[in-house]
Amino acid sequence: MQGSANLNLMIKAARKAGRSLVKDFREVENLQVSIKGAGDFVSRADIMAEKLIREELMGARPTYGWLGEESGETAGADPTRRWIVDPLDGTTNFLHGLPHWAVSIALEHKGEIVSAVVYDPAKDELFWAEKGAGAWMNEGRIRVSARRNMAEALLATGVPFGTKKTLPATMRDLARLMPATAGLRRFGAASLDLAYVAGGRLDGYWERELGAWDMAAGILLVKEAGGFTSAVRAGREILESGSVIAANAELFGPLSEILREPT
């Protein structure tokens, strides 16, 4: 596997965290769990995984900034570079023993994601990309799907839980898209949804209420695999908006049009 020094560092950190998470996943019933909010749990495994990643990345690049789901944001001496990390995307799946969760690491340079890793330890699938170098899964190049018709499209989304405010909008999305597509899925890990769009397993994905760490790596994967991404509200920056639409070139327009229809 060839890549930049930063990408190789990210892969090393993701695999290290993944090994730790797999050990805890095997003993999921014994995890020490604290409640962070309704339906939004944080576990000892989650915190430990972020600690391992931070030690690996910041130990090698101490001047870079940091944005992590658990530890928040830390400015770096180098204001142009920032790690964006979700140590355990799909925490609820993890805590229920569902083997669908991932480690997500992105590197931002001057406001643009330039390197991305999404690692699924349960399946040992490593999705990675660098700006201008394509998208890959393990040792093979990946591309978005070639489907052209919405009626044949398999889409994924996230359904709001707890106190999230986007449930009415999401229900409208579902009502509009379910009759128009081949099916909708709700897997519970945004980084993997985006990686699956990049790999052609899904034809499109959208979600309205996300953290930057949920999607930073995934949006580069989709772009480097030949797909398109945007915020749900046109004209906004994806990471700042907290929302994303991702699809192949043929379906991105129709999907965006439906999602942006006035109520």
What would you call the shape? Answer: globular
Distance between the ends: 48 Å
Based on secondary structure, the structural category is alpha+beta
- Quantity of strands, as a count: 15
Overview of the structural elements:
It is built from 8 helices and 15 strands. 35% of the residues lie in helices and 27% in strands. With 263 residues, the chain is an alpha+beta fold. The protein is globular and about 50 Å long. It has 2 domains: 138 residues, Fructose-1,6-Bisphosphatase, Chain A, domain 1; 110 residues, D-Maltodextrin-Binding Protein, domain 2, CATH 3.40.190. Helix 1 packs antiparallel against helix 2. The strands form 3 sheets. The protein has an 8-stranded mixed β-sheet, sandwiched between helices. About 2% of the residues have low confidence.
Topology at a glance:
Blueprint: H1 5-25, E1 33-37, E2 40-43, H2 44-60, E3 65-68, E4 72-74, E5 81-89, H3 91-95, E6 102-109, E7 112-120, E8 125-130, E9 135-137, E10 140-142, E11 154-157, H4 167-177, E12 183-185, H5 190-198, E13 204-207, H6 212-224, E14 228-230, H7 238-241, E15 244-247, H8 249-259
Helix pairs in contact: 1-2, 5-6
Write a concise synopsis of the structure shown:
By secondary structure, the chain is an alpha+beta fold. 35% of the residues lie in helices and 27% in strands. It has 2 domains: 5-142, Fructose-1,6-Bisphosphatase, subunit A, domain 1 (Fructose-1,6-Bisphosphatase, Chain A, domain 1); 150-259, D-Maltodextrin-Binding Protein, domain 2 (3-Layer(aba) Sandwich).
